[in-house]
Amino acid sequence: MSDNPRPSLYGARYTVRMIGRRSREAMRAATVVGHHYESGDVIAVDVPLPADVRAGDLLAVAATGAYNHSMASTYNLMGRPPVVVVADGRARLVVRREESDDLLRREVGL
């Protein structure tokens, strides 16, 4: 919801892959959700992922792009994620992750 509103706003669909470890399990349809525990916080529905995908695995969501960054919010004081450009097998950070200190810096107190 805060870092990827496009699926809930207008049904954007994404390719999702598990990265960082190999699995020999068969693929199965899975729903990938965000971290807000809200009914609209769904990133992808019925995407093929290994049957043994588990908490802590890293999932790559391809082509979320600049639109997500410009539409992102700090809903529930969640910082926005980094923006990483991947081309020719190389990854480059172009926008750093928003940290709690970034969010709290705007607070002036009572």
Automatic annotation (TrEMBL):
InterPro entries: Ala_racemase/Decarboxylase_C, De-COase2_C. Residues 1-65 form the Orn/DAP/Arg decarboxylase 2 C-terminal domain. The keyword Protein transport does not apply. Gene3D superfamilies: Lyase, Ornithine Decarboxylase, Chain A, domain 1. Its cofactor is pyridoxal 5'-phosphate. SUPFAM superfamilies: Alanine racemase C-terminal domain-like. It comes from the Bacteria. Keywords: Pyridoxal phosphate. This is Orn/DAP/Arg decarboxylase 2 C-terminal domain-containing protein. It comes from Nonomuraea mangrovi.
